[in-house]
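I am still getting used to backbone structure tokens and would like to learn alongside you. To get us started, please write out a protein record for me. Start from the sequence, derive the backbone structure tokens from it, and show both lines together. Once you have written the record down, we can walk along the chain together:
***
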Amino acid sequence: LQRKQAQFYENIVKVIRPKPDYFAVGYYGQGFPTFIRNKVFIYRGKEYERREDFEARLLTQFPNAEKMKTTSPPGDDIKTSSGQYIQCFTVKPKLDLPSKFHRPVSEQIVSFYRVNEVQRFEYSRPVRKGEKNPDNEFANMWIERTIYVTAYKLPGILRWFEVKSVFMVEISPLENAIETMQLTNDKINNMVQQHLNDPNLPINPLSMLLNGIVDPAVMGGFANYEKAFFTEKYIHEHPEDHDKIEKLKDLIAWQIPFLAEGIRIHGEKVTEALRPFHERMEACFRQLKDKVEKQYGVRAIVSSL
């Protein structure tokens, strides 16, 4: 059994697998059969299937159905109407790593569980509250997040299961910044691990990721977070956010050692033709490193066996 299980994990690590998209589909109106009427289902798309192609495939099964243009839950006028209305949008699976992985495992195995054996899915919609700030869109960018929980884990016997529970949470602008920063750090770390595990990986995705973070002309970096949340005015008006502000500062500080490792790997693999690009990126990183370590302290990655 353990040999068999080891073979499965080896396949996960070595075999390239396309990541499928997941789609929430609602069937509204009295025109649908009772087993799907006014219910929401989560579908697992086929390999490399775009939402437009999935929708077209879905609508061929219900040629009289009208496609809804919004992602908001419909009102009773739609649900009680005699017609057929289909709502379809992409949802993001939520990683639920099995408890047996209590110690670090290969990034490929974690990636496998991001899209397999999943039961919770989320859809996020940006919502602006308060006065619009033309200089900093992050200051009042709230996220309205809907969580869908299916009856069974996907994939299963079927490629689709009914949603059994739905709940909504609001993510504040500061919480959104923390989440975005955490995702960015994870993305850098994951790509670094992939290159350490497989030296033959192409360098282009790593180049784009690193340059998009260290070059302020490309993405703007986290300077917008500093302008939005680290000012005396914000700290004075939101004393309850002290711990969250410290958390965001900590994530900013931790980004530096992750970037340093990524740029080290990039320097080892870069071609001579791209050497000037790499040197410019290094110069940008040095400026970023000096600024961050001066303001938020030094973090170091401790290597473990």
